[in-house]
Amino acid sequence: xxxxxxxKIWAVHRVGQRGDGRDLVYIDRHVLHDLHxxxxxxxxxxxxxGVRRPDLTVSVPDHTxxxxxxxxxxxxxxxxxxxxxxxxxxxFGITMLDIDDPRQGIVHVVxxxxxxxxxxxxxxxxxxxxxxxxxxxxxxFACGTSELEHVLATQVIAxxxxxxxxxxxxxxxxxxxxxxxxxxxLIGQIGVAAGRGFAIEFAGSAVRAMDIDGRLxxxxxxxxxxxxxxxxxxxxxxxxxxxxxxxxxxxxxxDAAVSWWRTLTSDDDAAFDRMVTIDCxxxxxxxxxxxxPSQVAAIDGRVPDxxxxxxxxxxxxxxxxxxxxLQPGRPLAGLPIDRVFIGSCANSRISDLRAVAKxxxxxxxxxxxxxxxxxxxxxxxxxxxxEGIAKVLQEAGFEWRDSGCxxxxxxxxxxAKPGERCISTTNRNFENRQGAGVRTHLASPLTAAAAALxxxxxxxxxxxx
Amino acid sequence: xxxxxxxxxxxxxxPQDDVDTDQILPTPxxxxxxxxxxxxxxxxxxxxxxDKTESDFVLEQPAFRQARILVCGSxxxxxxxxxxxxxxxxxxxxxxxxxxxxxxxFRENCLRNGVLAIRLPAEEIxxxxxxxxxxxxxxxxxxxxxxxxxxxxxGRAIAFDISDHEREALMLGLDDIGLTExxxxxxEQWENTSRRSLPFxxxxxxxxxxxxxxxxx
Lengths: 465, 217
Ligand code: SF4
Hints:
A: 16 helices; B: alpha/beta; 11 helices; binds iron/sulfur cluster
């Protein structure tokens, strides 16, 4: 029997097996963010341990830092979390991409952008969206704070090998339908727990046709269906995208890497524990109506009647509609909105911003709507400014911020007001996630931009005409 | 890590499915490094609704304020990997969670903090919820990890499954990093071998900001 892509990377990195049956898997690259690094550094020190490979470790503040400059302040303000990341990084000899570093950004955006994540590489990150970089063929491990400390101390992760799922997404996407819509639809189809216990390989013609930014958005939402990691087999588009990035191998080392990367595909007879195929050719743009990412409908659809669900799904839908202040059967389109957030590790890359600017060009954000754009990295911010994207967005009335997680989780204090309805390009619509009582609808950047201009939910394909 | 052997205490029931870590420990308590995590546990759910004088939430009811065991639905702990969610559970005084299933990272986080996360088949969970609800905090449940058994106040026993390794790690309060450190020579050997076979994996350099790459402006 053949091997899958994940089997192959696993086999190369398997250091051994611990007495308790867990595999020890070597971590080639370890990226930390500010929310958890300080705790792990403190705990390491308390236990008298050091960092085994500071040279393979990078720290980036994103969750807790300000994305808005205070009037009169020369730079960005940090936070006590960024401070403990800074002192710990210095103490242990870890390179930190600090708030004034032009390479700073959201950890999952920065890792591939700098070539820290690469095909065939194993990467650990103390964050449930670590799988984002699976899009370029990196095998990523999302971990908690204790596991983070474990990787710092040993450079391996102790883990039972997960089951394998092959998720095929087939068909040609219609115009105006994006990777984000595919991801939301997929979660609606298979549910929020389908990926639990699995490592997922995305395949199929729809995935192959996506550009790398699209694949990154797709892999990003793996946690939203319960998966701890996901991967896309690297191809020529991936190699081209990675080439020349700051930390990517150069010259002969690059050529050697590419010839290994070309072997990183699943064999035809590789075994998977579960296979799912979804046809995406009829898909419309998607939007969530509820408080978990599987509660999703087509943008031209209606809020469902909880009575049509069974058992606990019914009470969950009842609860969601009460929280979201929605009536069963009403169309999503037409709902008035208060806020739009374009950002997060799901959708804040240059192609997202280009698409939004193209759509918005020359028009205005609806009066009464607060619309904010937070680029995924400082490099993306600068690129967007150079391309004139920032100008288009600012002239339309969008706020243009510094890079960070911002209102995705609101850990830095960027939150909406109770009761506000927010169209968000993020990945989580949980109750109170974007502020107490805030009603979050997840969607693609185009759908969010269209809502910002109209002041209500609209199908951007119709609004563009 | 504090060893876990036998736990005797009040059990509370929270039958909802898909309880995410944003509910278990909401962001305001995450943002504040000095926050009282015991208060933050289910912080929003514990609030008093506008039209009421006290909270409806189970852990706010006098009989369950001392709960040591929480019986949950399925997919408990999904969403954010924040380990603070487990720290909050522990800070409140709960050492054992029982659910039809847990999110992967959340369960790992429990194990590493000495919180016993027991999975039971869906039918048994339903029965346990009924038992917990009918006792109303009036009598203790006992979780015996050595015997892998939950004893209800009416004397009924429910067996549960856990791998021998996990059970041992919890019972002895084993240091997880210590377990891996026994394999240091394997790790070194791996590093040496891969330096030859796939050199770019070990050859990683990222320039510090202030030396080579000051912004051009
Ligand atoms: S952008 Fe949101 S989902 Fe992504 S790492 Fe930051 S807080 Fe987490």
